[in-house]
UniProtKB/TrEMBL annotation:
SMART domains: Cyanate_lyase. Its EC number is 4.2.1.104. The lineage of its organism: Bacteria, Bacillati, Cyanobacteriota, Cyanophyceae, Pleurocapsales. Belongs to the cyanase family. It comes from Waterburya agarophytonicola KI4. It catalyses: cyanate + hydrogencarbonate + 3 H(+) = NH4(+) + 2 CO2. This is Cyanate hydratase. The keyword Lyase applies.
Length: 147
């Protein structure tokens, strides 16, 4: 994945200031994962949201404007991802994709889950055997049109 120059600057400022995505969520008033998607240029913010992001990071307001431009989404390379965390999602879809699809179709009919009318939440769930990652994806069901 190629990281844009603006993303590099935002991440460097985030690291330098010791700011978490959760801190940005509190400052902006929107979900931390959505804010991360803006920083990684997979979503666009309005000017007010973008300004809150850059000023919270201690950057000039002039850096907000690029965050308002609709990005080129889906920046992963076409080959199988090699980053271990991202690869696990690929592996999960290889193993559970068809079963999930079957259950969705059984419950909703023939259609898809929107990635536009969509949210994702990442939570840390304490567990005595080792903390767990809980990811909740919520997308609008879109039935296929018949004509």
């Amino acid at each position: 994945m190629l990281i844009s120059e603006i993303t590099e600057k935002l991440l460097a400022a985030k690291k330098e200031k010791g700011i978490t995505f959760e801190d940005l969520e509190k400052a902006v008033g929107l979900d931390e994962t959505w804010i991360a998607s803006v920083i990684y240029r997979q979503a666009s913010a309005n000017m007010e949201e973008a300004t809150k992001i850059v000023t919270t990071l201690g950057l000039p307001e002039s850096m907000a404007e690029p965050l308002t431009i609709a990005p080129l989404k889906g920046s992963l390379e076409p080959q199988i991802p090699t980053d271990p965390l991202i690869y696990r999602f690929y592996e999960i879809m290889q193993v559970y994709g068809m079963p999930i699809k079957a259950v969705v179709h059984e419950k909703f009919g023939d259609g898809i889950m929107s990635a536009i009318d969509f949210s994702v939440e990442v939570e840390k769930v304490p567990d005595p055997k080792g903390d767990r990652v809980q990811i909740v994806m919520c997308g609008k069901f879109l039935p296929y049109k018949k004509w």
